[in-house]
Structures are given as structure tokens and as C-alpha cells.
Design a protein that fits this description.
Protein name: PepSY-associated TM helix
Number of domains: 2
Number of helices: 6
InterPro entries: PepSY, PepSY-ass_TM
Shape: elongated
Structural class: alpha+beta
Largest sheet: 4 strands, antiparallel
Distance between the termini: 31 Å
Pfam families: PepSY, PepSY_TM
Keywords: Membrane, Transmembrane, Transmembrane helix
Length: about 240
């Protein structure tokens, strides 16, 4: 079999096998460059965090006093701000707890009232808080963020959802309809149809390998058929 015949068949069958995935890669790349990443992350509806000051003697509870309010051995304890007030956040590899640095009251896990305040303080978009739910089952859009987790659903035009950890009071994720579109094409792009996080697993590596050979075989055909053939036909006979 002549090399050019082999490469024509090779290129054709590779195109049939990998062509749809190449289309998904192109579509995913277009979508990921089309959307503003700040809009995807929900940062355009994020309010400026409320600052707290230590100059007015707000902190009346020491770290050691705060540790007495928790029932696990922390690896670290940090003074942070929560809704403009200082709190102690104790942490180890598996657990976290919040203690009010003014009153010494343990605030974690956050109750619904406090979670609502955190959600409202974080959101600056055009909409109202429509629903607040403590989730005990993992959702795909907050995979790996831990459970339970508070979900604050707003009724703005992009259906913004704010997720709050009940153990450290932090907003751990912001999601919206734009994020869902982005995430769907991200899944197609990296070919991780379950977790949508692994972009160097064997399937995508194998697909990239096939796409590379399809490109190289196509390049060979272009050089062989277009450039070399043109060169031969332009050579004068003697």
C-alpha cells in the first residue's frame, strides 16, 4: 500500500473516532473564553466584606478562653472577622469551630439566622434571598466543599446560589446559571464526566494522543498532495 493511501485511510478513521471530541474541545474553548470568569464565579454579585477593627477593644476573649468552648484539639486558632465582628476560628484537619471573640459564645455550627446574615452580607446583586437550606447530601456544583452546607438561593436573573460552611462561617462557593453552562462545557472539554475536576486522566490523554496523530496525518496529506504535487507539476519536462 502506498504511503499516501495509508495516511488517507488513517486520517479518515481517526477523524471518525476522535472528530466529535475535537468538536467538543473547540466548543468548550469557545465557551470558556466567551464568558467573563468573574461572572462565572459569581464575583460580580459579591459584596465587599465588612471590615472589623481591633482598635476599640472588641476582643475581650483570649485564644485560650476560646479553646475552652470547643470539644476537639485544634492545630491552629485564628482571629478573623465575621459580619464585621471578631471571632476565633479553631481548625484541625477534620474539624472547625467559631467562637465569638467578644462574648466567648460558640457560634458553630451556624444556625439559620446567622447563615442568613452571612448570605445577605455577601450578596450585592439585584435580587432577594428566596430560600435558605441546610444541605446534607452533596450537590455536583459544590463537590468537595464538605457537608452539611448552607445553600442560599437568590431570585436574581442568574439564579445566584451562595454556599456557606456552618463550621467556619465562610462563603465557600458562589454558583449561578452561567456557571452551570460553563461547567457543562468544562466537563466535555476535560472528559471527566463524573467529578469534572481531573484534566489528566487516561481517557483525555488517549484522546489527545489520537487527535495529535490525526493532525500529523492531515499535515502529511497537505504537504504531499498540495505542495509536493504542485512542485512536480511545475517542473518543466526536458
Amino acid at each position: 500500500m502506498k504511503p499516501i493511501v495509508f495516511f488517507r485511510k488513517f486520517h479518515k478513521w481517526l477523524g471518525l473516532i476522535i472528530g466529535i471530541q475535537v468538536l467538543f474541545w473547540a466548543a468548550g474553548g469557545f465557551v470558556m473564553t466567551f464568558f467573563d470568569i468573574e461572572e462565572v464565579r459569581g464575583e460580580h454579585t459579591m459584596a465587599q466584606p465588612v471590615a472589623f477593627s481591633l482598635d476599640d477593644g472588641q476582643v475581650s476573649i483570649t485564644a485560650n478562653q476560646a479553646l475552652q468552648q470547643i470539644d476537639f484539639a485544634p492545630e491552629s486558632i485564628t482571629l478573623k472577622g465575621l459580619l464585621g465582628k471578631p471571632v476565633w476560628v479553631a481548625t484541625n484537619k477534620e474539624q472547625q469551630a467559631i467562637v465569638d471573640a467578644t462574648t466567648g459564645k460558640k457560634l458553630s455550627p451556624l444556625d439559620k439566622s446567622l447563615a442568613r446574615q452571612v448570605a445577605l452580607a455577601d450578596f450585592s446583586g439585584q435580587g432577594e434571598l428566596a430560600e435558605l437550606t441546610l444541605l446534607s447530601e452533596e450537590l455536583g456544583e459544590v463537590r468537595g466543599k464538605g457537608l452539611p452546607i448552607w445553600q442560599a438561593q437568590f431570585n436574581d436573573s442568574d439564579n445566584t446560589r451562595v454556599y456557606i460552611s456552618p463550621y467556619n462561617g465562610e462563603v465557600v462557593a458562589r454558583r449561578n446559571d452561567t456557571w452551570r453552562v460553563f461547567d457543562f462545557f468544562w466537563m466535555l472539554h476535560i472528559m471527566d464526566y463524573k467529578n469534572r475536576t481531573d484534566f489528566n486522566h487516561p481517557l483525555v490523554v488517549f484522546a489527545a494522543f489520537l487527535a495529535l496523530f490525526m493532525t500529523l496525518s492531515g499535515l502529511y496529506l497537505v504537504i504531499k498532495v498540495v505542495f509536493l504535487k504542485r512542485k512536480r507539476t511545475s517542473t518543466p519536462k526536458t
